Amino acid sequence: MKLYSYWRSTTSYRIRAALNLKGLAYDAVPVDLVAGDQRAPDYVALNAGKGVPTLVLEDGTALTQSMALLEYIDATWPEPRLIPADALLRAQVMAVAHTVALDIHPVNNLRLIGQLRTRFGATPDQATDWMCHWMNEGFAALEAMLPAGDSFAFGDAPNIADICITAQVYNAHRWGVDLTHFPKTARIERLCLNIPAIADAHPDTQPDNRTDAKVAT
Question: What is the pTM of this model?
């Protein structure tokens, strides 16, 4: 398999973590979002949405959208399970995962921030304030949704909710969100990064890591 990703992309981080947890081998193909690689014709042929990640299977099938990819990966390689089989628990886990994937991430990604700057004249500080506002809003919701305790989001092993949270917290650190207000969220990231498979998926460990990169989430 080939995983087209960008090192700082939190959606790519989710998929790297899932593939690593499953023990699946893949070739990483960098897509530099800042340089505009996602708009190259050969990449658009794989991913019409001009985003990352894209997972290309052995038979050449290209799959996109991180949440759909997580479902595919979990259904195809069910151990360790990332999405619970129990219907009630699955609904609770997916609600947390979707709070990150549908409420927090979309209003903080590269395309939207670019529009705030170019169309509406937002300054870099205003763009950062925007991102931090929506992360604070989303993390407050997560704190209310997550059970108390000293383990992962919903059990003794990480699942799709933990993966989504951990990837989003990377951005929170990057933009200066104070996590002392969100102890459950911070605990989940800490536990996840103690797992080598997830730590190895962290943006800072990726071969295309560019510390001079501008905004790209």
Answer: 0.94
